[in-house]
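Q: C-alpha cells for this one, please.
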Amino acid sequence: MIEEAGFECVGVDIGTGKSGSVLRIYIDTRDGVRHEDCERASRLVADYLDACEEEGRPWFAEHYFVEVSSPGLERPLFTVDHYRRFTGCLACVWLQTRKKITGVIEAVDDTGNIALVPKDGHQTETVSFDEIKRGNLVFVMEKGEKKGDSKKRKK
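A: Here is the predicted structure, written as C-alpha cells:
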C-alpha cells in the first residue's frame, strides 16, 4: 500500500514502548519526504490496521502506535540492496554477535557479503548480510555543509 501511494518503503521496525507496540515505517521519494507525506502514509497504514482489526484479524494484541518518517541522515540499512546502493558511504553495523563495525562500505557481492573498511584504518572486514543485526549510514558533516543539507549526499 505504501508503494501504491507513490512512496518507497525503505523498511519497517516493530518494537515495544511504554504504552504498547510501535510500528515504525521509513518512507522515501526521489524528492525527499515532507511532513505531509508522513501524515498521508500514516493515515493509510492506520486505516488498514483498523480495517484488519474490525475484520477480526488484528496485527497487534495490545495498544499500538504507528510512526512514519523519512530515513533521515543516518538512514537505516534494511536490505543487501541498501548496502549496495550506498557503497562508498560510511556505515555503522551491529552484528548478531554484538560486535560493532564502523566503516566505509567498500563492496557488496552477489552472495550478500559486505566488505567494510573500518574507520580506524584496520584491515577490511567482510561480513555476510545474515550476520548483521542492524546497520545505518553515519552522517559526516563535510566542510561548509550544514547539518540539514542532505541533498548533496542522496543517491
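A few notes: The first strand starts at residue 8 and ends at 17. The beta strands are 8-17, 20-28, 64-69, 90-95, 100-108, 113-118, 125-128, 132-137.
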